[in-house]
Known about the structure:
By secondary structure, the chain is of the alpha+beta class. 40% of the residues lie in helices and 26% in strands. Helix 3 (31-38) runs antiparallel to helix 4 and helix 5 (51-61) packs parallel to helix 7 (77-85).
Amino acid sequence: xxxxxxxxxxxxxxxLPPHLLLSDILKLLDGRSLASLSSVSQNWRSxxxxxxxxxxxxxxxxxxxxxxxxxALDSGYxxxxxxxxxxxxxxxxxxxxxRSTAAYPTIEKLISAVDIYCxxxxxxxxxxxxxxISDAFLNNPFKLQILSPKEKIPTTLKFDDEAEECxxxxxxxxxxxxxxxxxxxxxxxxxxxxTPVESNRHWLNGSIxxxxxxxxxxxxxxxxxxxxxxxxxGVHGGDMEVLDVTLQVEDLNLKPLTGSESLxxxxxxxxxxxxxxxxxxxxxxxxxxxKRRVEKKEREEMIKGNMDIVIITAIVSIFVAIFAFFRSTx
Length: 330
């Protein structure tokens, strides 16, 4: 007897125990394939919605999500995966809101999960919690030092403090993931994209800086960036080391925002539209940020120049008036 394709599928797949599907088969799929499979039938939707499946997928891609502060979430790993695997693309113009509605969600606690890779191999994982309701946080510049003082992370890359190609090597070999999670609002976003939006070398000590950023519009009508800056260095001819990793939020003048201002920007990023991560889109948004920063600086310099002209003209006019007064009275 020949089975129809449908009957064959029912005979070979459906009778399998759910624990066998979860442990040996479905865990081999990526998130997109798993989401597609869940749309096949109600039965598959139930199986593919299992929290342990999505939790394992999250922790395998981002080992820092296995930390104690994240494991306390207990649920929502499918949503967490969806937030982390995509790029946050909030509008580059501030959204209009009704006065009766809250402008931004309140973030009472912020969880940071950081992973550093070199050539696809995990080098460093860390998760930590930031109290966002204290006066010290709200009123001071928001800046998180991911590494402890004097901590260095060795890589398999070679460091050359002179060759420009070393910057390209660092940009291609080192990848950073920094996920910010609001546990109460069950929102998250990955600050870092697929590749750095900017990379350069310090002219004096030869260190390499890689900048990852998510650009967001703020209520003032300007733009801000949530950025992770990775500093790499080492001894000439030796192994490259990750020397510093800093998370901060900056305005168009690259001035660090306070904690309260940063929460607004982070809230906008978490609530923003999501798209498939694409390095071209991320760099285009960053180039727009740089463009507007240059335009703002030029406007400020023009205003300052005009004010200087007005002041000089006023001073000259006063001296001319005084000179004419004394000349007429003499």
